[in-house]
Specification:
It contains 8 helices and 5 strands; from the N terminus they run E-H-E-H-H-H-E-H-E-H-H-E-H. The chain is α/β, with parallel strands linked by helices. It has one domain: P-loop containing nucleotide triphosphate hydrolases (Rossmann fold).
Amino acid sequence: MRLVLLGAPGSGKGTQASRLKTHLQVPHISTGDLLRAEVAAGSSLGRQAKEVMARGDLVSDEILLGMLEDRFSRDDTRGGFILDGYPRNLAQAAALDVMLQRLGQPMDSAVQLEVDNELLVERLAGRGRDEGRADDTPEAVRYRLEVYDTQTAPVIDFYRTHDQLTTVDGVGTLDEVFDRIVAAITPARAAC
């Protein structure tokens, strides 16, 4: 099962991806974790990314795709993977699709965790207070959600037009949301 999890910051993607990893017996691939690991390992792409980040710039889609392609070439992804936090925009979704088709590992399903923005503001602002994070003020969270909505709406449409998207209510207990995701991906998983 090759699965991409979509959802706004605070929607629970990372938490659910960790649970799904065990359930599906496939690796959870977070582009943030992958980027940090490549930089720490000093790989060619990691060195390129480190230079970009040292300048304060965002790592290019080309570098991220190179890292993902390398990651997808490893044996543990043959049975699939869970991709969390990527793609974030339409160009990334299209490039990822082309790469996966070329590798013979097309995406099976995309699940969007849907949570009301005001609930996300409460969740993230609460986390900000608890953890002392200045970037999780209600104003900062609202801005990040606006950016997410603007950039990710085309990604959601991309997977919808490819008949790969399922929207799942992301509100409830961890088990309730997990069960909804499993039910949503079961038809795609059976087709794998």
